[in-house]
User: Which sequence fits this backbone?
């Protein structure tokens, strides 16, 4: 495999989405909610929303937390989420239903009367808003066919953007992991459950401290 990309200079700032899920939010006066998903823009690969489980036992709604309100710190696989506010401010964040990623938009279109309800509510649907949880596991497809599956997404703690993706391939009974830059992705298809790649030959093995990933042979 051609190793064309150099190792990121700030690998300590990269955090695994796979390990972020389930992390509790640290508020200035409490600990509340758990991260369940990240919604990102598939053009810029910037994280637009953090999705939290209900922080109030009396509520069933998930919350949308803006990245500007959260500081991501800790080690790559031991991340911490610090919310810039108290519990009252946290509970005032908008419902997750106010911004739906493509996968949930598709589900709405297939629900009777849902499209009319959306139109009447005046909610603008975003064709570029994607769910990390949904795309994780998608097939990776290059010009020559399938090259593996998407295993993880690596988040830059300073910019709240997805810098690298991690692929997984099974060959000869062995698991091979590789990382590649987000700009390698040409398109994402919900219908096909796939990411189409521009230059799959540019994939390289992830190195420490992107730890926990199996080194490619």
Assistant:
């Amino acid at each position: 495999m051609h190793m064309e990309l150099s190792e990121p200079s700030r690998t300590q700032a990269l955090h695994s989405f796979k390990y972020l899920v389930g992390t509790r939010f640290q508020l200035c006066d409490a600990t509340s909610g758990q991260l369940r998903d990240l919604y990102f823009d598939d053009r810029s690969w910037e994280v637009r929303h953090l999705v939290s489980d209900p922080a109030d036992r009396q509520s069933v709604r998930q919350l949308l937390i803006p990245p500007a309100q959260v500081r991501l710190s800790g080690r790559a696989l031991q991340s911490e989420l610090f919310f810039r506010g108290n519990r009252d401010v946290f509970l005032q964040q908008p419902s997750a239903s106010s911004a739906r990623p493509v996968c949930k938009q598709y589900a709405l279109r297939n629900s009777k009367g849902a499209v009319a309800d959306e139109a009447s509510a005046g909610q603008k649907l975003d064709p570029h808003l994607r769910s990390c949880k949904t795309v994780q596991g998608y097939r990776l497809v290059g010009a020559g066919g399938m090259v593996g599956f998407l295993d993880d997404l690596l988040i830059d703690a300073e910019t709240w953007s997805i810098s690298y993706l991690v692929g997984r391939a099974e060959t000869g009974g062995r698991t091979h992991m590789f990382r590649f830059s987000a700009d390698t992705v040409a398109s994402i298809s919900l219908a096909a459950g796939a990411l189409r790649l521009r230059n799959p030959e540019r994939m390289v093995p992830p190195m420490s401290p992107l730890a926990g990933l199996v080194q490619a042979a």
Q: What stands out?
A: The chain is about 15% helix and 40% strand. Residues 102 and 190 are 8 Å apart (CA to CA).
